[in-house]
Amino acid sequence: MQQYCFRSDTVFHYLTPTHISWQPSVNASTHHTDRYANTELTVRRGQAFTITLYFNRPKQNGESLAFVTEIGPSPSESHHTKAVFNLSEVGASGWSAAQGPSEAGYVNFTISSPANAVIGRYNLILQVTSGNKIFSRFLGQFVLLFNPWCPGDDVYMDNENERQEYVLNENGIIFVGNAKYIEARGWYYGQFQDHLLNICLTMLDLSLYYRQDPAIDVSRRGDPKYVGRVISSMINGNDNDNGVLLGKWQGSFHSDENPSRWDGSVVILQKWRQDNYKPVRYGQCWVFAGVMCTVLRCLGIPTRLVSNFNSAHDVDRNLSIDKYYDSSGKSLNIGKDSTWDYHVWNESWFIRPDLGTSYNGWQVLDATPQEQSKGLFQCGPASVIAIKEGDVDLDYDTLFVYTEVNADCNRWIVYNDGTKKRVYCDTEIIGRFISTKAVGSNSRVDVTYSYKYPEGSPEERRVYKKALAKIFGPNITGGHRESPDERPSENIRNPGISGKFKLAEPPVFGKDITLILILSNLSFDHKTVKVDMNASAILYTRRAVAEILKATTSVDLGSKQGKHIRLKIPYSYYGKYLTTDKRIQVTALCEVIHMHGVKLLVEKTIILEDANIIIKVNNSLSDALNRQKELKSVSGAQILRQECGHKCIILGCNFRCCSKILLA
């Protein structure tokens, strides 16, 4: 039994507590907080907990007891950050306490908090009233969290398997890659590990919201949508607010700064604390989302990660993603819109009394610093149901998330004289295979239809027009204004040909890449097609980093004829330009001669696989554990400068050793 003693600095004849037991084992078990590494009592709101007080003598007639709870720098009953409550029956709407079984020298008390109480670290004080005198004794501190097990809590979740997954599971899966090649990577949330709870509570106190008005900020911490929004602004460090992570998507990284090296949140959050809350370098979307999931689960808000493939970033909020190419098919980094191969955000589960019950459930929160919302880099909470129904005018940032999953995609050719011509429009490519981890397993669950109706369906187009009307007004027509010239949509002429890229073999880093452009004549007329092909190294945000090669050819297509054009990208061309995202975008701009500039744009994003490295050692491994042995050879698909031999130690379980190998 954990006990704390008090100094005996009060006159002995007054009723005085001498020490307290917080009953940590019992309380932690019933409140699902037994896995937290911190030593102080941690309980959940809306649920009773028990303490035992030892007194210097029995309570006498004319003496009464009351408790006081306080939180924040300026506790106030009007702000619901202070409560004074006498002994009564537990279960009242506010704070309450009841006396339980007693023995000589000690008394058990049951204390209950309201289901909407402010979360955080509380002071607990005992008040003893004797006649007209009141004596107060500070008993200690405890931490109060959100409670998904309490039906009265805004974050209540009625499925135990889902609570185990979205609150208590410390391990997760993040889906990355692209729409045609989805990969799973593990992530360790570690929300119960050493110092994590204190770090999360400190994060709230470092926010700009707290600095602006500490008393008001603390008073609003009973609201999960407020807490979620604050945390979304604090995970990134773009607002000079002591945020956790800086983002970086361009340029080179030192070995200890590459976002790809992170595989969990604990190291990041502990480093942030150790560095006196200076932002850690660096993060990208899945890192921001992983850390945010840790913090929200730690505070008791059910949270999961969601990956959106072909994710739009619509800067001008017109529901159109505009991408520009020169006349040879080279991607141009002009215009602010972009389409990311994937983007990862969070969903948290709580009700939305500010919007109405129909918008309860999963809410999008996004800590990746893309655009400012009300002056800060924060996003959400946006109701997933509001997104699906096109209610883009509702709080918070629903329009921004709607465009990420449902914008139209337009491609423009920029000619030498500066004129622009739209050559491609796709209403279905954005927001594909929206994915999250399954409950209780590492399988992928597709939640696309939680965000939107099936592409091309009457419901999807109805919702799209509804969203347009909320943005541009009720008189908007199907030909809404669009970039780059704010002019009505124009019909895109069909060139009468189709095309697609196909890989000749799986692309492996270190090997040459061979693609086949398959062009087909869709008509009975003979066609001559000029083909400008371009390959560029890109980031997963599809921003071009460097041009790798370009080539021009022409092909004659007879009636209903198809032909194959091979394109080889040597490793010597792309190796020095490739980023850690390992992506190459290939485009073919196909112009049918004598059709007055009618063009077909064909695109493909290639993600290179890692090469297998084969290590051979002399003698069998079973005889070599923890002994120095000669490496017979190390070989890999063109990634080694030379065959090499090293002495290394073949290690047993939980041991590690490094040996330097020069890569090409």
Question: How are the SSEs placed, and which strands pair?
Answer:
Layout: E1 3-5, E2 17-21, H1 24-30, E3 41-44, E4 49-55, E5 63-70, E6 82-86, E7 96-103, E8 106-112, E9 120-130, E10 133-145, H2 160-168, E11 171-178, E12 181-188, H3 196-206, H4 208-212, H5 214-219, H6 224-234, E13 245-247, H7 266-274, E14 280-283, H8 285-299, E15 303-313, E16 320-326, E17 331-332, E18 338-350, E19 361-365, E20 382-383, H9 384-388, H10 398-406, E21 408-414, E22 420-426, E23 432-437, E24 444-446, H11 448-451, H12 458-472, E25 497-503, E26 513-521, E27 527-538, E28 544-557, E29 562-569, H13 571-574, E30 583-592, E31 599-607, E32 613-617, E33 627-636, E34 647-650
Parallel strand pairs: 3-10, 13-14, 16-21
Antiparallel strand pairs: 1-2, 2-4, 4-8, 5-6, 5-9, 7-8, 9-10, 11-12, 15-18, 15-23, 16-17, 18-19, 19-20, 21-22, 23-24, 25-26, 26-29, 27-28, 27-30, 30-31, 32-33, 33-34
Helix pairs in contact: 3-8
- Category by helix and strand content: alpha+beta
Q: Remind me, CATH topology of the largest domain?
A: Coagulation Factor XIII, Chain A, domain 2
Distance between the termini: 62 Å
Number of helices: 13
Number of strands: 34
Q: CATH architecture of the largest domain, please?
A: Alpha-Beta Complex
Rg for CA atoms? 31 Å
Beta-strand residue fraction: 35-45%
Work out the count of structural domains: 4
Q: Given this structure, which CATH class of the largest domain is correct? A: Alpha Beta
Which runs of at least 5 residues are low in confidence (pLDDT < 50)? Answer: 478-490, 637-664
Outline type: elongated
Q: How helix-rich are the residues, as a percent range?
A: 10-25%
* Average residue pLDDT: 89
Can you identify the CATH superfamily of the largest domain? Transglutaminase-like
Strand order of the largest sheet: 20-19-18-15-23-24
Please outline the major beta sheet. Answer: 6 strands, antiparallel
